[in-house]
Here is the input.
Amino acid sequence: KGGASRVLGRELDRSAMNFSFGDLIETEVFFAPVIAWQDASHVLALVTDRGRCIPHRFGLDGTVAALAGGDIVASSMAAAGDAVAVIATDRGRPGEVYAVEDGALRPLTSDGSRWLRPYRRDPEPVDVPHPDGHEVGAWLLPAGRGRRGPLVLQIHGGPHGSHSPTPWLEMVALAGAGIHVLYANPRGSAGYGEKFTGAIHGAWGEDDDSDLMRAVDWAIEQGLADPKRIGVMGLSYGGYMTNWLLGHHPGRFAAGVSENPVTDWIGMFGGSDMTDLFGERFVGIGTLPDGLREFLKRSPWVDIHRNHAPLLLLQSENDMRCPPAQTELVFAILRSLGRPVEMVRYPGEPHGMLGVGRPDRRVDRLQRIVGWFERHLRA
Here is the structure.
């Protein structure tokens, strides 16, 4: 009114967009507008909350109401009068178009669900207690009931992304191959409040490391994971943490897959298309010598020589977010030390190849991931 802005839903300490992604979630509309006017007195928005993304109504009178519930991830929304529709996933079901009615979602399409039906798996939500007093929200995609065996820890990107009740296809494929998958939202993840999300600013690899390793310890304590057959994988920030954990916890993991990772902060500051993010949010290089020392301290390549676990590196050649040199540095170090490491480069592909890449390359990616962990975790 009068050109001034006004905060709606101040008490809802969450992000007003979808921060969960994966190849079953509609990736092409990631970061698309998710706010719409319903009428002259109400605004609709998607809100990320503990891995879910739920449509909400915000009244100009200060009221806030969720329009649906459950283990859903809505990635796009449209409204016309009282009619509201979203593209969403429901647990292990791929993205479909739904009408939002009476506090629930009514499916309008079934195309995505039809092809995945024979392979669909719904993850089990778990809350892992942490000694610092909080719980680490996570999901388990078991390969079988009550069976101790190999397990892969899968780490999301971002760092301010989030995992959700909807698994990624590699998780479904790994579980189908007899490998448990555990995926968690460590500190730094979106959807748990501003303090939780900002906890790792300036300190990547500290609180997030602690949360992820606590999730691994929990899986061992529960009798799910064989401590000698645990793998770790991730893309982007997930690749960063994969390399970080391998270098900082040598011997804890039997194999890793790192995809389009961050490994060298100095190279990222000069070579990534998001230099402003790394300069302002990560360390803030006001005093250059101190900044350089911090960049080195937080760069996984510095400690990767401590890793002896077989590592598969996947890199998209047209990735401007995490350029190929980030992967090549770790590959060169491990190869020079005679460690088991392989690198695969996908020509012409962007950072998010898993969701928008050429179909045959996405299939190749899945086959390589499953084959790598079958080879190194099933022995």
Remarks:
- Residues 359-377 form the longest helix (19 residues).
- The longest strand covers residues 225-235.
